[in-house]
Amino acid sequence: MTLILQPGEALPDHTAHYLSAELEHIFWGRLPCGTDSPVLSIDPGESVVIDTISHEGILEDQGRDPRRYFASHGVEPEQVLEDAVALAASDHPRDPSADGPHVTTGPLYIDGARPGDLLKVTIGELQRRVPYGVISNRHGKGALPEFPRGGHNVSIFAAVEEHDGAVAGSLAPHAGGEPSIRFDLAPFFGTIGVAVAGDSRPHSVPPGAHGGNIDIKLLTEGAALYLPVQVPGALAYVGDPHFAQGDGEVALTAMEASLRGRLQFDVVAGEDAVRLFGEQVGPIAETAEHLVPTGMDEDLDLAVQNCVRNAIALLQARWGLDPEHAYAYLSAATDFHISQVVDIVKGVHAAVRKADFRSLT
Known about the structure:
The protein is α+β, with helices and mostly antiparallel strands. It is built from 5 helices and 20 strands. The longest helix has 20 residues, at 300-319.
């Protein structure tokens, strides 16, 4: 039987900190701001195991009853997460007509983080809390305004199955069909962010300089995300867990499903941040092979331009290229990916190969 990671269960013995997704530890539809109180305080370099809840299965158009909703897809009651059931049944003050759908866990106060610094969030082990997820298309908000057809929201159930010794996602080719389509899983958090200054909580959908719902699928195990700190302590949070996503996320959601993640939080001082990355407007990611500057705007053309400018700033700061040679290198050797086109503010990210600059380090 597949292990279901209920709150507080099956935690690793070496866990120094654990943050559950109980009602006192989550935001639903909005993100933290500078006047919100942290639910956990840690020192730089410490790691936290964090439970997150997918919004799929708890929303109003699914009945706001995850046990009943997932039972319609053959999921037994004991395979539904207790914290998801509690949130759906709660009187949490989310306004479905004005707030977003996403559930985030946090915020965390990281001692010593100050505006002008970067918060480095390193992604450690990611565990699937359940063996299923949902892919949804709602309200004409995907890439194609003519979907969903018939004027009603569509949620497609996807299972996690083992085939030939490997775990994969599975999907039916049509309503009522057998789940015969197989695709790779690569879990990541769609939302990783820091609090914005002031007393107004941002909507959970559009990403920005604070990070938030950036939906960059490269942020799997071993990757890191650097976020511009905007308030003392950073007040970091994670959520919108995914099991798989294609660049663009064109239907509106990825394969949305709850994750448990081990994350390490470090602080990069402002002067070191500029030396390493240049003046970045927004988040920058890093994998073993790539540095990944980002660009965002409601206009996709402007999002691309912003990403190119941030990539040029990175190349100038890290390896001393002049702007013309940086621009030429990016055109010849760097892929620019559409992170997503469905979150109001569209996202683009570039994959700059670190190995190309071995001789300059």
